[in-house]
Amino acid sequence: MEQVKSWVLAAGAVVIALLILATLVRAVLGPRFTDRIVAVNVISTLVIAELMLLSVWMREEFLVDIALVFALLSFLAVVVAARLVAERQRHRRSETVGKAGEHVRDP
């Protein structure tokens, strides 16, 4: 039974690693900035899943702590990136309105 568990966990680790590589390709090729942000977020989620799987496979509990810290940092990075996108869109909107000759006001 232990051998089957080891094979299943190894196969799962390989599948997650391949998914990380496929998502990395999507992050590089993504036509828009938001596509890249989503792809990086998916990569971080897959890395957390990989860490949890390795924690079970290697019987190392400290990997769970590392995965939790990584999840918190990933969440903060997504919040900062979303804020960056919102500021960029607000700036573009104000430039477009300013070029049209209309009065630009700050919300």
Structure in words:
The structure is a single chain. This protein has 107 residues and is mainly α. The chain is built from 3 helices and no strands. The longest helix is centred in the last third of the chain and has 38 residues, at 62-99. The model has no long low-confidence stretch (mean pLDDT 89).
SSE diagram, text form:
Blueprint lengths: L1 H28 L3 H26 L3 H38 L8
Helix pairs in contact: 1-2, 2-3
Q: What does this entry show, briefly?
A:
The protein has 107 residues and is mostly helical. Helix content is 86%, strand content 0%. It is built from 3 helices and no strands.
Distance between the termini: 63 Å
Relative helix content: over 70%
Describe the largest sheet: none
Look at the structure and give the mean pLDDT: 89
Continuous helix count? 3
Sketch the topology as an H/E string, one letter per element.
HHH
Q: Report strand %.
A: under 5%
> How many domains is the backbone divided into?
1
**Helix- and strand-based class?**
mainly alpha
Tell me the number of strands.
0
**Which regions contain 5 or more consecutive residues with pLDDT less than 50?**
none
Please compute the radius of gyration using only Cα atoms: 20 Å
Shape: elongated
